[in-house]
């Protein structure tokens, strides 16, 4: 189950610093300059996670629709059987 967490970046802040979630670090903490190498990797990871979540959602939705279709077909058959209509 995916739980949405509120953004950790303050919208009202005018400074360029932001609040980081646990496990994140800033360049000043690590003592290195921003090389731009990690950012695309993080974006790719996030895109892959979103794509995976979407595929699971689509699979689950398809499964639910299939189950509802089968139930509707059975109920239609059962109704027609009970009233003596064409089967």
Automatic annotation (TrEMBL):
Classification via Pfam families: Spot_14
- Asked if the record carries the keyword Disulfide bond, the reply is no
Keywords in alphabetical order:
Cytoplasm, Nucleus
Q: Where in the cell is it found?
A: Cytoplasm; Nucleus
Q: Does the keyword Nucleus apply?
A: yes
Coarse class of the protein's main subcellular location? cytoplasm
Cellular component aspect of the GO annotation:
cytoplasm; nucleus
* Compositionally biased residues, Low complexity: 7-35
Q: Where is this region: Disordered?
A: 1-47
Q: Which family does it belong to?
A: Belongs to the SPOT14 family.
Q: What is this protein called?
A: Uncharacterized protein
Which organism does this record belong to?
Callosobruchus maculatus (Southern cowpea weevil)
Ranked from the top, the taxonomy reads:
Eukaryota, Metazoa, Ecdysozoa, Arthropoda, Hexapoda
